[in-house]
Amino acid sequence: MTSEPASFSSFSAAVDSINASLTYLCCSSSSSDDDSHSHHNQSYSSDVPRRFSGFAQRLRLAFNQLLRSSPSLDGFPPSVHTAVKGIAVDLAKAVETASVYRSRSKIFVLINCVSLCASLQEQTLAIFRWLTLLESAIVDLPELRKKIADLSTDMKQANLNVTESEERVYCTLQKEGQARQMQTSKAVQSAIVMDLARALGTDPENNSVLSEQIKVLKSDLGHSSSVTERRILASLERIMGNWAMEPTMATWKLNLEFEDDAHISPFKNFLCPLTKEVMKEPVVLESSQTYERAAIEYWFERCLEDGRDPTCPVTGQVLGSLELKPNIGLAGAIEEWLNRNVEIQIKIALQHLGEEPPSVNSVEKVVDNVYKISEEHPVSRYKFCSAGIVALIVKLLRNSSKSIGSNLRSKALLALLSMAKDAESKEVMLEEGTTKLAIHSLIASSEKEREYAVKLLLQFSSDEACCTKIASEKGALVLLSSMAGNLEHPALSNLAEEVLKRMERINENIQHLAAAGRFEPLLRQLCEGSDDIKIEMASIMGRMTLTNSGKEQLARQSSGILVEMLSNPAAQAASLQALYNLSSLDDNATILVDSNVLPALTDILFGYPDTLAELKELAASTLANMVSNPGHWELASADKEGHPMQSETIVYSLLSLLSRASLRCQASILHILYGIASSPQASESVASLIKSGEGIKIILPFLEHPEVQNRIYAFRLTRVLSERFGQDLVQELRASNKLSLFRDKLLDKEYKDGEKSDAACILANLSLLEDEVKILFGADFVRWTVNTLETQRRNSKGRITGPAASMLEGLLGILLHFTRSIDPLTLHAVRENRLMTIFGEQLCYPSKPRVKQLAAFGLKNLSECGRSLAARDSEPSPPHGFCSSLVFMCGRASSRPSMCPIHSAPCEEDSQWCLLKGNCIKPLVDLLTDDDTSVRIAAVEALSTLVLDTSSNFKRVVDELEESGVVDAVIHLFLEVRPGELQEKAIWMVERILRVENHNQRLSLNQALVRALVEAFKHGNPNAKRHAQDALTNLKQLSAVSGKASSQIRSRR
Question: Which Gene3D superfamilies does the UniProt record give (predicted)?
Answer without folding.
Answer: Leucine-rich Repeat Variant (1.25.10.10), Zinc/RING finger domain, C3HC4 (zinc finger) (3.30.40.10)
